[in-house]
Design a protein that fits this description.
Elements lengths: L3 E8 L2 E8 L10 H4 L23 E3 L26 E3 L4 E5 L4 E9 L29 H4 L5 E4 L10 H6 L6 E4 L1 H17 L6 E9 L3 E2 L5 E2 L4 E2 L4 E2 L3 E9 L5 E9 L16 H8 L9 E3 L5 E3 L2
Length: about 300
């Protein structure tokens, strides 16, 4: 049974709630040779540790002031700020920070609502393609993935952008792709993407920030190491985990944050998505990024409430 912590803050009439769960990505490390084949609930006990702050480090959030940003199609996804400022690229349907060393994105931000999810765009008309805005030394190619055993996993999902064929086509740039275990990509991760889309029924806008993680694993010598595979002649880095952070915006201005981490390995679909909820601070520490910087955060200001066990 996972322990779930729920914290709620209400500031200046703006309600902000964060639900965090100690789940899959927070379990103790175990035998790394066996975990890739394990699709049962037992895999939750053998995943690398992601650092988390104490429950007392609850976050006070100052509401974002809408008048500070002139919302339009090119800036709307950056409404709550950018996690970092390196190698920023703006596409039709998302904003990306590219990591040239790993040949994939550090993060991608997109905005979902009823308008973006409605349209006649067809992914069958889209093709994976090299990003020619990235130097040839630092980009990935389709050849890197061929025969690798990994999917070209979208970070900004194609199905999130049915409103425009160009917007959907842009999600097929390999800069928006990361090597993903097929059993993850086609099952649990797809379920998380579908869940994000379903949230537009309850929220005015859903901002989604997605990216890879490269987490340490304890080896037999007792020391922690960061190890990951690379693909093809361009040495495309295979993440150990993926994160997805949701900024859920209600019509009246209330904001809710949810953050997930999944290991890049097969996951039993019977494991509920709530098991992969983690504190947003844990992803910030592991990734070196700072999320929602336009929502000012002050730690140790309010007490978290424990619910369930």
């Amino acid at each position: 049974m996972h322990r779930v912590f729920r914290s709620r803050w209400l500031l200046s009439g703006v309600g902000v709630s964060l639900t965090v769960g100690i789940g899959a990505a927070l379990a103790r490390a175990g035998d790394r040779h066996n975990k890739a084949q394990d699709t049962s609930n037992g895999l939750l006990d053998r995943l690398p540790i992601i650092p988390i702050p104490s429950v007392d480090a609850a976050t006070k959030i100052t509401p974002y002031q809408p008048e500070q940003i002139a919302v339009n199609t090119s800036t709307d996804v950056t409404k709550y700020g950018l996690p970092s400022l390196s190698n920023i690229k703006s596409r039709e349907s998302y904003v990306i920070s590219y990591d040239p060393r790993n040949r994939t994105a550090a993060w991608v931000i997109e905005k979902l609502n009823a308008e973006t999810l409605t349209g006649t765009s067809d992914r069958k008309l889209s093709e994976f393609k090299e990003d020619d805005s990235v130097h040839v030394y630092h980009r990935s190619s389709n050849a890197d993935y061929k025969g690798s055993g990994f999917d070209r996993g979208h970070l900004a999902a194609a199905a999130n952008h049915k409103w425009s064929q160009k917007a959907m086509d842009d999600t097929f740039y390999l800069s928006n792709v990361s090597p993903q275990n097929p059993q993850l990509n086609q099952h649990a991760w797809r379920n998380l993407e579908e869940y994000c889309r379903s949230l537009i029924k309850d929220y005015h806008n859903v901002f989604v920030c997605t990216g890879p993680l490269y987490l340490p694993q304890q080896e037999p010598d007792g020391k922690m190491y960061v190890k990951y595979q690379v693909l093809g002649k361009n040495h495309v880095a295979v993440p150990t985990h993926f994160f997805k952070i949701l900024i859920l915006e209600k019509a009246r201005g209330d904001v809710e944050l949810r953050s997930y981490v999944m290991p890049n390995m097969p996951i039993d679909e019977k494991i509920p998505l709530e098991s992969f909820l983690v504190p947003i601070e844990s992803i910030e520490r592991a990734s070196g990024l700072l999320f929602v910087p336009n929502i000012m955060k002050k730690t140790n200001s309010l007490k978290a409430i424990t619910a369930g066990s």
